[in-house]
Design brief:
By secondary structure, this protein is mainly α. It has 16 helices and two strands. It has a two-stranded parallel sheet with strand order 1-2. It is globular and about 60 Å long. The protein starts with 24 loop residues before the first helix and ends in a 13-residue tail after the last helix.
Amino acid sequence: MTANAAEYDVPADRIRTSKPARTTDYSVLLRQVRDAGLLDRRPGYYAWKSAVVLLALVAGWTAFVLIGDSWWQLATAAFLAAVFAQFAFLGHDAGHRQISGRRSTDFLLGLVFGNLAIGVSIGWWTSNHNRHHAHPNTEDADPDIMGVLAHSSLRARAGRGVRRLIFRYQGWLFFPLLLLEGWSLHFAGVRALVNRSIPRRRLEAATLLAHAAGYLAIVFFVLPPLQAVVFIVVHQGLFGLYMGSTFAPNHKGMEVLPAGDNTDYLRRQVLTSRNVRGGPVVDTAFGGLNYQIEHHLFPSMPRPNLRHAQPMVAEYCAEIGVPYCETGLVASYAQSVGHLHAVGRSIARPEPVPAGRG
């Protein structure tokens, strides 16, 4: 069982080999999960989930047209931001081949959920996200911790100029910066197209252009220019805030691994991830990403199976002595933002900030 499977767009939980594999902690857990049927596809779930989200999108844009020239459209912007996030979660699942298990089918679904519905490139996202899964919270390897925020005191102290200033006050700036996350997702896809760093560029470009044209056309057709601009700013800002708020508790404040770290696959995924307790409401709001540990261990596991795998994984981690972090919703944000504050303050003091495990 290779620990670097995600680097090659092959989830570790889907690898099969004709030779007997060396027994590892992960292979034992994988066998238990597979025997429980938790890696089996769930087409019925994704059929009704997709239908509900599509209905919400149609309802949102229908309401937008019916309300017309009114500042009440800001409420529509908030609703559509939440709907866009739900489409992003479906795109996420398609990128991991959770839906059909077939590369081509899930890619096409990703084009619909990502490129066409919300204007986020599935090709860029899959490439970027696979790197994150291969090396979560690893310096110089995880793209998610090499952005505008510093997750370790080492990186915070290396910052210069404006970047250093942002690092210093990143705990306070975190949620305001999330208002730009939606724009960042759109821009990253376009940049990947320009840089020719993703395959099937013509199809990606055509679907992204179709979304942009349709989105701008309906907004500027229904609203006068000022209201249209305000609607777009609010909609995209809240979309980014929502997405960033669901990502925040996943890894921030957890173990940060040094560059070149060779921790085994199971511990690399568990020690760097945090689960968020909640129930059906949190599961829906987070798109299943509140089961971050299980998702990282089994990235191709269909979303509805994650909650069934959770007690199995927690029990197994306890058996082998691996810390398993699970907190409530409020505590998860407190730990995440608290860690960003601590890293920012470390710029002014010599000792490193230890990453918490909840």
